[in-house]
Amino acid sequence: MARKFFVGGNWKCNGTAEEVKKIVNTLNEAQVPSQDVVEVVVSPPYVFLPLVKSTLRSDFHVAAQNCWVKKGGAFTGEVSAEMLVNLDIPWVILGHSERRALLNESNEVDRVSNWSKVVIAYEPVWAIGTGKVASPAQAQEVHDELRKWLAKNVSADVAATTRIIYGGSVNGGNCKELGGQTDVDGFLVGGASLKPEFIDIIKAAE
Ligand code: PEP
């Protein structure tokens, strides 16, 4: 089964309401390949989720940048997955290396029970926000190893169908060659997802 190209935009802790409206306008006006070719998901900071959800074009989806992985309750400051579902937010980024480094998150908080709902992002930490990008061959080698790991530890079907995307200084200039690798199924984009070049990155799906 072909794996649909996936492009995620991780806005991190950036933006004002005005800036968010500008990014959304740029995305709304963009000519991009259809939903059959690419799945686009943007991930604004929590406070802007309702604004983005209500103004973003309907063929793009919205993700939260984190969520509480257990049921809601007495967990001050947390937002549960159930609340995201209630707001019709279908995606969440879990286990980002910035959260692991700064907030001591571990593998324990993203144990997977249903792989059909998961996209794996391979992001070399030395490439995140540094302007240093993995070569297409490096990315392909790691994605291939990740797929082999899935085949051995989960199942051949999960290995064949799970999308493995690359993140780390992806931009309009390097996306096409990276995206052309057999096992690179798209991108998780940080800095460039706040800029118009995010549209060029979406077009790498073509
Ligand atoms: C990220 O934080 O997920 C990321 C890939 O950032 P950048 O594109 O800025 O390197």
From TrEMBL:
The EC number(s) attached to this protein equal 5.3.1.1
Q: What family classification does the UniProt entry report for this protein?
A: Belongs to the triosephosphate isomerase family.
MF annotations from Gene Ontology: triose-phosphate isomerase activity
Q: What is its main location?
A: cytoplasm
Say yes or no: keyword Cytoplasm present: yes
| Species per Swiss-Prot/TrEMBL record | Thlaspi arvense
Any idea where this protein resides? Cytoplasm
Catalytic activities: D-glyceraldehyde 3-phosphate = dihydroxyacetone phosphate
Q: What is this protein called?
A: Triosephosphate isomerase, cytosolic
The highest taxon in the source lineage is Eukaryota
Any single GO CC term annotated in Swiss-Prot or TrEMBL for this entry: cytosol
Q: How does it assemble?
A: Homodimer.
Entries under Gene3D superfamilies matching the protein: Aldolase class I
Entry keyword annotation includes Isomerase: yes
Concerning HAMAP family, the annotation shows: TIM_B
Biochemical pathway: Carbohydrate biosynthesis; gluconeogenesis; Carbohydrate degradation; glycolysis; D-glyceraldehyde 3-phosphate from glycerone phosphate: step 1/1
Query: GO terms for biological process?
Result: gluconeogenesis; glyceraldehyde-3-phosphate biosynthetic process; glycerol catabolic process; glycolytic process
Keywords on record: Cytoplasm, Gluconeogenesis, Glycolysis, Isomerase
